[in-house]
Amino acid sequence: MLGGMSWESSAQYYRIANELVRDRLGGLHSARCVLMSVDFAEVEILQSGARWDEAGALLARAATQLEAAGADFILLCTNTMHKIAPQVEAAITVPLLHLADATAAAIRTARLDTVGLLGTAFTMEQDFYRGRLASHGLTVLVPEADDRATVHAVIYDELCRGIVSEGSRAAYRGVISRLASAGAQGVVLGCTEIELLITQDDSPIPVFPTTRLHVEAAVDRALAQV
User: Fold this and answer.
1) Which of 6, 58, 201, 216 could form a disulfide with 160 if both were Cys (CB 3.0 to 4.6 A apart)?
2) Is 77 one of the catalytic residues?
3) Which NCBIfam families would you find in this protein's record (predicted)?
4) CB 141 within 8 A of CB 182
5) Where are the alpha helices (DSSP H) in 69-120?
6) SS3 content of the chain, % helix, strand, coil (to 5)
């Protein structure tokens, strides 16, 4: 697991992985994993400065350390930083389990073809993530500009700092309702922190929690190799 972006959601990765392994194998079983956690402050500076090549180099170095530590495959525990997933993949010889692929598989299993996407401004407005979902035959809708700004601000100003606000939950509910009115059959919680704020109870349409879906795909793959 290549995490720390933010550690608030990476902690959920670790928790969910261990819970799933325990539930599937029983007894005192837990997940065999290696976690590399970077300093998100350093990554955020590179994000905001559009210094993506430098961010990719930083995460590629971390990924090689995970491989050297014995990882059979790697999870990049952040939707936004899948922008530089090709740079990470080029640095390692083990597979990178792409978060958008795991999410798209779940959407397809649910027999939906049009989804709304919530995430950072980078994820909602650039093509690296929307395009990956679209490559699976999905139509991806994003909120209007004001709603995108709200969603992004809540992630960085609150959720990444461990702040969960009822006001922000209400704001996100409004955004999701507007996406549903625009034709979204489901909504992708396309930032790993959003699951700290939003559950299925907050949405009139199915939600696709990317953290959980990513970990479920990883545990499926790991246990298939046992």
Assistant:
1) 6
2) no
3) asp_race
4) yes
5) 85-91, 99-109
6) 60, 10, 30
